[in-house]
Amino acid sequence: MARVLLFGPLRDLAGWREREVAAASISALRTFLADEDAALGAALGGPGVQVAVDQALVRGDAGLSAASEVAFLPPMSGG
Amino acid sequence: MIKLTEAPFDPGALLSAFTRGRSETGAVATFTGIARAEQGATTVLELEAYPGFTEAEIGRIADQARERFGLHDLAILHRVGRIGPGEPIVFVATAAGHRRAAFEACDFLMDYLKSKAPFWKKEHGPDGERWIEPTAQDHADRNRWN
């Protein structure tokens, strides 16, 4: 089970911050989440949303293990 | 020092600690960002980070700043959690041999923090809440350093 984390507006949209999902890849995880919540699925693929696996940014697809931590990171703003 | 904190901080105390004991540093520049009330439209600013990842990403850009501007040292303290109007939200200090490098490194680090650092910022006010994204100006400011 990969540990999935949502941040910022994605968390508000989904109504959860963290959960466990069985998925072998990021693309499988996206499909699973989109099937369950189409609005979230669309937002996860929205402009400027980055993905980190085990706290490292990844582009495109990547395999996941049972211990993976996957974070969806919408556009960032500090200061 | 790169640190996130939920507690309010005193920028003056941070500056005093940062400047203490330096004999070869000719210049220290600082920036303190303060949460605005926006004429009553914002009662609380809520800042979220990704613990571990946020510090590591800031650390990467801090290393760039050290190299690019030849810094002797730097400090970045950023609030997370709920912040009231008038409270400091971010403190950046840079130490260098001469003033230009210290000023520019401070400017560089703030432009990065505003548009690229892993924080998510929500304004709460009498009219509800809204997430803040970087403005076109923030992106343009960041791109000055490319």
Features:
heterodimer, A: about 80 residues, alpha+beta, five-stranded mixed β-sheet, globular, B: about 150 residues, four-stranded mixed β-sheet, four-stranded antiparallel β-sheet, about 35% helix
Structure description:
The complex is a heterodimer of chains A (about 80) and B (about 150). With about 80 residues, chain A is of the alpha+beta class. Chain A has helices spanning about 10-15, 25-35, 40-45; strands spanning about 1-5, 20, 50-55, 55-60, 70-75. Chain A has a 5-stranded mixed sheet. In chain A, β3 (about 50-55) and β4 (about 55-60) form a beta hairpin. The mean pLDDT of chain A is about 95. Chain B has helices spanning about 10-20, 55-70, 100-115, 135-145, and strands spanning about 1-5, 25-35, 45-50, 75-80, 80-85, 90-95, 120-125, 130. The mean pLDDT of chain B is about 95. Helices cover about 35% and strands about 35% of the residues of chain B. Chain B is of the alpha+beta class and about 150 residues long. In chain B, the strands form 2 sheets. Chain B has a 4-stranded mixed sheet with strand order 1-4-6-2, with helices on both faces. Chain B has a 4-stranded antiparallel sheet with strand order 5-3-7-8, with no helix packed on it. Chain B contains 4 helices and 8 strands. Chain B starts with a strand and ends with a helix. Classes of the chains: A alpha+beta (about 80), B alpha+beta (about 150).
